Amino acid sequence: MLKKTALISLFTFGSRILGLVRDSLIAVCLGASFQSDAFFIAFRPFDLSRKLFSEGIFSISFIPVFSETLEKEGRPQASALFFSFFFFFSVIGILIVLSGVFFGPLFMKVIAPGFIHHSYEYGLTLILLKIMLPYGFFILITALCMGVLNSFGKFGVPAMAPLVFNLVVIIFTLFISSRFNVPAIGLSIGVTAGGILQLAIQIPLMIRLGMLKISFFRIFHPGLVRVAKIMIPSMIGAASYQINIMVASFFTSGLDEGSVTFVYYADRLVQFPMALFAGSLATVLLPEISKKALYGRMDEVGELFSRGVKLVFFVTIPAMAGLMALDEPIVKILFGHGAFGVEAVEKTADCLFFLALGLWAFTGMRLFATLYYSLMNTAIPFYSGMITMGLNLIGCLASAPLGLKGLILSVSISAVAGFVFYS
Q: Is the Cβ–Cβ distance between 231 and 5 less than 8 Å?
């Protein structure tokens, strides 16, 4: 377990380092302005979709069913399940793209209720949203391939995919965005290009595993229904943090210029230890616990999970203390350059402090969700997620007088409540 986790952590570490480089370059390029707010608001739904699917949360519902099909019915049936999901996701992806093109203004009312209609910021966000729509399609197919490869114990290539994505966006930020009068447009094109390439690198391994044989193609597989029944509650339980951050970002669209940007960068820094340790371990634990539970070896499940939790908290709690104690120096070193001024550094550091308060709860909820979904128990994570999201929504509405700090504190407090429910 430690060896596999180390492999994923290595690639995740590289991806997160490139992610910080990417965000630092974006900060230099866009600063904390209307343009950066427009880019991050438009990118936030796709970023949430990537975390729901490509970063392993979709795998919580998919891997147990796929692993069982592979073990009991063989590779042809497993491939048929993959093709069934491929067809299903392709239809959904195409509908998302068409809906975004024709009903973009309706989307804007949801993702940026604070933006004034027909303002520059509103119009730019709508343009960026439409440019990134194809990325939403590629997220779904990429997540499906990652779930299949993880089920086969092939963790390296899926873990490398986000690294490729970040590298592509960095290249576009450095060399392409400056060619546009509005640099955010170049960045948005880079997001879509990165989505295409992170899918492309997984195709050769899928072919070698025999998953893409056209003779196994099937539009409908019974496993599709089984996964679909637990997919939505699984995502609510496992992705409550990402959803709460997105909700907080929507509320910040009505605050001062740059508020959306401050929340985005604080979230990126908190995500670093979460993805590096909790995310990597959860990716390894899911197929391992699913297989042990399938054969009734519950003592081994308990021992494996206990060791994993101890390992993650051993690193996460000191990381939380470090982020809180060094919030402003960290933000200044990483983002305080170019158009990202002193005031932007201070406000981002404030967001980071209050968001880091809940880091231990964020990681704990992710691990417990992985355990319950490995055991095919969707009820407890679902109710925990609903409690967390409900409290966060109430907190965001009630914290309006406190401004940005109140919104971020609401995310942390609601996560603590969700973790207590698991306990």
A: no
Rounded to the nearest 5 degrees, what angle is found at the Cα of 108, between the Cα atoms of 237 and 256?
90
Q: Is the pLDDT of residue 36 over 90?
A: no
As a whole number of angstroms, the longest Cα–Cα distance in the chain is 61
- In this structure, are residues 305 and 285 in contact, taking their beta carbons and an 8 Å threshold? yes
The pTM of the full predicted model, rounded to 2 decimals, is 0.72
Q: Is the dihedral of CA 359, 360, 361, 365 positive or negative?
A: positive
pLDDT tens digits along 346-374: 999 999 999 999 898 888 888 887 778 77
In whole numbers, what is the pLDDT of the chain averaged over residues? Answer: 82
Query: How far apart are the C-alpha atoms of 283 and 261, rounded to whole Å?
Result: 29
Residues 6+ apart with CB under 8 A from 214: none
Residue by residue, DSSP assigns 35-78 as HHHHHHHHHHHHHHHHHHTTTTHHHHHHHHHHHHHHHHH-HHHH
Residue 376 CA to residue 171 CA, distance in Å, equals 42
CB within 8 A of 346, min separation 6: which ones? Answer: 328
Q: Which long-range contacts (CB under 8 A, 24 or more apart) does 4-8 make?
A: 4/153, 4/155, 4/284, 5/280, 5/281, 5/284, 5/311, 7/155, 7/156, 7/159, 8/155, 8/159, 8/280, 8/283, 8/284
Q: What percentage of the chain has pLDDT greater than the value 70?
A: 90
Q: How far is CA 274 from the centre of its chain?
A: 11
State how far Cα 251 lies from the chain centre: 20
